[in-house]
Design brief:
Shape: globular
Structural class: mainly alpha
Order of helices and strands: HHHHHHHHHHHH
Number of domains: 2
Strand content: under 5%
Number of strands: 0
CATH topology of the largest domain: MetI-like fold
């Protein structure tokens, strides 16, 4: 007869500590975020900007009052007002809506490019450092030759062959970024290979794949995360430059660089807001990712944790 009551008491006794533990874990996470914001205010500001960009890119249809190519009757080149927060352009399109949809283009290009570049750079850098010998010599000389050319010439050459488009922009920027990042990842891998756990793994008979995946990659993950975060700002700026030169995402899809190059440059003196707001968006995006990457470097780098 006392079994149900005992079961209830047992469930309550077990459930209460679990609930308190979950509550304490949530507060501990919030305290860690507050401590990071206090120690790295610029990093916290960059994180807020990055979160705002991600929200704009994910929910552009709900945030923007108009479509990116919708024309508004009788609203040609209107100054910023309550009806149009950032004004309108020469084709009577709402600038706020176009800037919001432009965030989706920049975020998509940035994340796809960085993901592809990090995969290529990790494969080249880790394998070059791990196997060494002739493979390391050949790979590093190819990287040297690739980096000897000015980056703008390489990008324009690749885009001239592939043509404009979202996928081609991602490929061209990823090829350039992967060569630069592979050097940094190779250096971090060489440092990790000097540790005793790699020697212990070899003594235990672990294969090459297990050593790379279980011992080397996790220990260079902090470097990879930092490179990816800082690289996002670089890629967004490079994509805007390509769009400004006419090699980016083709119209009518809005791109911040394309908005600066086309009507923004043509009507700069008559309607300066057409060039100001895309430029502000590019600056904020690059600033946010750079500050976040710098804060992550200070937090994740063991040599800088005490400073």
């Amino acid at each position: 007869m006392s079994t149900p009551a005992a079961t209830l008491n047992l469930n309550g006794a077990v459930g209460a500590p679990l609930t308190r533990r979950a509550r304490h874990g949530r507060w501990r996470w919030l305290l860690a975020v507050a401590r990071l914001a206090r120690r790295k205010p610029l990093g916290a500001m960059g994180a807020l900007i990055v979160v705002a960009l991600l929200v704009m890119a994910a929910f552009a249809e709900r945030i923007a009052p108009y479509g990116y190519d919708d024309t508004i009757r009788g609203a040609r080149m209107k100054a910023p007002s309550a009806a149009h927060w950032l004004g309108t352009d020469n084709l009577s399109r709402d600038m706020w809506s176009r800037v919001v949809y432009g965030a989706r283009v920049s975020i998509t290009v940035g994340f796809l490019t960085v993901a592809l570049a990090i995969v290529l750079a990790s494969a080249v850098g880790v394998s070059s450092a791990y196997f060494g010998g002739a493979w390391d010599l050949i790979v590093q000389r190819v990287v040297d030759a690739w980096l000897s050319f000015p980056y703008l010439i390489i990008i324009l050459s690749v885009m001239a062959v592939l043509g404009p488009g979202l996928g081609n922009v991602v490929i061209s920027l990823a090829l350039l970024l992967s060569a630069t990042n592979s050097r940094v990842i190779r250096g971090a891998t060489l440092t990790a290979m000097q540790q005793t756990y790699v020697e212990a793994a070899r003594a235990m008979g672990c294969g090459h794949a297990r050593i790379i995946l279980r011992h080397l990659l996790p220990n260079v993950a902090a470097t990879i995360i930092i490179l990816a975060t800082i690289g996002l700002g670089v890629v967004i700026l490079a994509e805007s430059s390509l769009s400004f030169l006419g090699f980016g995402v083709p119209p009518p899809h809005p791109s911040w660089g394309g908005m600066l190059s086309g009507s923004g440059r043509t009507y700069m003196f008559r309607a300066p807001w057409m060039a100001i707001w895309p430029g502000v968006a590019i600056s904020l995006a690059v600033f946010g990712f750079n500050m976040l990457g710098d804060a992550l470097r200070d937090v994740l780098d063991p040599r800088l944790r005490g400073s």
